[in-house]
């Protein structure tokens, strides 16, 4: 496995990227955005970044600024922009509402349009003809199990070794991201180092030496799997169920790691 290398000036680059992205409407927290930028900057240089679920461009701007700084490949931003998933329905003002115009405005205002390749389509449609290598797969679209698993299954075959997969909202009341992370990543034998940062679940694609990380994966599985039955029906949690969910979630380590500590985890 090629060691993960940290490009020069990464802390400053993350600060600049967050400054550009922070005021764009969206659901990405600062620690999540910084970690997304860390993965983008430290992934193998070959391949593109695939973003599934763009909304108004918060993560696309964060990633675009890192691409601009380090000469990375494009961010392929895939989203029908029609408020189609459960997380976005409440933001739809009318049946024909779209977030596409605001998305374009925000990436243009941030100066990252040359680094963002927008696809106003469903990820399932883009996947049908996909043939490019992927260095970072950022899944933040349909949070149902069917949606999250479909995105993983469609695009992971194109992952480069040492690339990263990340799923947003894995520690919220959705079944897809957390179930896919536990069942299809931690238990797959294809991935290495893994973890959570706030509500991002992430792992590195390492099919050749996944066994080196079995202890870490088992530890994460032990705490994360407790959430699965609580979110299985994708319904809002109330009362005792919500308390149980919060208690189970509290057991999951999810702080933003220092860059040096994180790379040591990746390069044991």
Question: Can you tag this structure with a few keywords?
Answer:
Rossmann fold; seven-stranded mixed β-sheet; alpha/beta; 10 helices; 268 residues; 40% helix; 7 strands
Reconstruct the topology from this structure.
Elements: H1 10-21, H2 30-42, E1 48-52, H3 58-70, E2 75-78, H4 100-109, E3 116-119, H5 123-127, E4 134-139, H6 145-155, E5 159-167, H7 176-186, E6 191-197, E7 200-205, H8 214-224, H9 239-250, H10 259-266
Parallel strand pairs: 1-2, 1-4, 2-3, 4-5
Antiparallel strand pairs: 5-7, 6-7
Measured on Cα atoms, how large is the radius of gyration? 17 Å
What coarse outline follows from CA principal-axis ratios? globular
Helix percentage: 25-40%
Number of helices: 10
Q: Could you tell me how far the N terminus lies from the C terminus, measured between alpha carbons in angstroms?
A: 11 Å
Instruction: Supply the CATH superfamily name.
Output: Vaccinia Virus protein VP39
Structural class: alpha/beta
CATH topology assignment: Rossmann fold
Beta percentage is: 15-25%
Query: How many domains is the backbone divided into?
Result: 1
């Amino acid at each position: 496995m090629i060691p993960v290398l940290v490009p020069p000036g990464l802390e400053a680059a993350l600060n600049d990227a967050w400054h550009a992205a922070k005021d764009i409407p969206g659901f990405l927290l600062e620690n999540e955005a910084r970690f997304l930028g860390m993965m983008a900057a430290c992934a193998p240089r070959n391949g593109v970044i695939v973003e599934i679920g763009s909304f108004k461009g918060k993560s696309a701007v964060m990633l675009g600024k890192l691409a601009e700084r380090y000469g990375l490949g494009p961010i392929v931003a895939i989203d029908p922009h029609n408020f189609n998933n459960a997380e976005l329905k409440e933001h739809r003002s009318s049946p024909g509402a779209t977030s596409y115009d605001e998305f374009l405005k925000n990436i243009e205002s941030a100066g990252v349009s040359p680094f963002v390749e927008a696809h106003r389509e469903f990820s399932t449609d883009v996947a049908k003809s996909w043939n490019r290598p992927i260095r970072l797969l950022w899944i933040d679209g349909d949070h149902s199990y069917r949606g999250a698993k479909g995105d993983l299954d469609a695009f992971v075959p194109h992952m480069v070794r040492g690339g990263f997969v990340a799923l947003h909202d894995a520690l919220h009341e959705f079944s897809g991201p957390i179930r896919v992370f536990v069942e299809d990543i931690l238990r797959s034998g294809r991935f290495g180092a893994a973890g959570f940062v706030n509500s991002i679940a992430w792992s590195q694609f390492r099919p050749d030496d996944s066994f080196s990380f079995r202890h870490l994966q088992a530890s994460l599985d032990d705490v994360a799997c407790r959430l699965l039955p609580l979110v299985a029906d994708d319904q809002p949690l109330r009362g005792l169920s919500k308390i149980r969910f919060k208690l189970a979630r509290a057991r999951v380590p999810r702080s933003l790691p220092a860059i040096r500590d994180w790379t040591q985890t990746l390069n044991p």
